[in-house]
Amino acid sequence: MYNTDIPTRAELPTSAQLLRSTLIAIVAAAAILVTIVLPAEYAIDPTGIGRMLGLAEMGEIKAQLAEEAEKDRAAGQQGAAPAAAPAPDWRSSLMERVFAEFVIGSAAAQTTAARSDEMTITLKPGEGSEVKLMMRQGAKVNYAWTVAGGVVNFDLHGDGGGKETSYEKGRGVPGANGVLEAAFDGNHGWFWRNRGSSDVTVTLRTSGSYAEIKRML
User: Fold this and answer.
1) Does the pLDDT of residue 12 top 90, yes or no?
2) Is residue 190 exposed (0-12), middle (13-18) or buried (19+ Cβ within 10 Å)?
3) pLDDT digit string (tens) for 174-190?
4) Which helix (H) or strand (E) holds 45?
5) 3-state secondary structure of 159
6) Each residue's pLDDT tens digit, 26-53
7) Which residue from 38, 39, 46, 122 could staple onto 55, CB 3.0 to 4.6 Å apart?
8) What is the enclosing helix (H) or strand (E) of 6?
């Protein structure tokens, strides 16, 4: 963690840079989809690479097993009341899932770099509150928080995937700013507690690469 100011709008990635990163992610995902996923999952091998790697044979086996399972299911329903609607095609549903995971997911991951948020929390005497950012390992967020009406104790920490870490702690602090770099995938953020005798208001400003900001307490 390094102390620094929140970047100006000019220092954030431009729309053109984000668009270029998104297009690169989509092209890479499409290449993986065509050369690896389609042959291995559906026995569809338009490039021939899947058969060279032995993936097409794997896909053929999966397709055959799925068809046999569907025939068994249909045979078991003979003589019973007709179904209200036909079962969805397994290839279509799997294709939709793979497209969502590889293409849409990759593109969405590129759009979190320029996110900015501001949150205000009022704490009564003795009350605590926690705010977390959902971040990927190595992602960075510029932050600044200030306290109006007094000071607070705080703990900047992270957790996720069975891991926990504490980045910084403080007592009787009127505010702080810096760069939070995620040590691992998970939730990273602040816990504040008001140990004073009057209400205080904490204002948090964040800008950087994170998928979500949420108040936990």
Assistant:
1) no
2) buried
3) 999 999 999 999 999 99
4) none
5) strand
6) 888 788 877 887 777 777 888 888 688 7
7) 39
8) none
Cα gap 94→169, rounded to integer Å: 47
Residue type, position 84, single letter: A
Determine contact, residues 145/177, Cβ cutoff 8 Å.
Answer: yes
User: DSSP string covering 54-122, please?
Assistant: THHHHHHHHHHHHHHHHHHHHHHTTTSPPPSSPPPPHHHHHHHHHHIIIIIHHHHHHTTTTEEEEEEEE
- At 3 the three-state DSSP class reads coil
The CA distance from 169 to 185, in Å, is 21
Q: What is the pTM of this model?
A: 0.53
Q: Tell me which amino acid residue 165 is.
A: T
Which pLDDT score, from 0 to 100, does residue 123 have? Answer: 98
Measured CA to CA, the distance from residue 217 to residue 59 in angstroms comes to: 48
User: Would you say 45 and 57 are in contact if contact means Cβ atoms under 8 Å apart?
Assistant: no
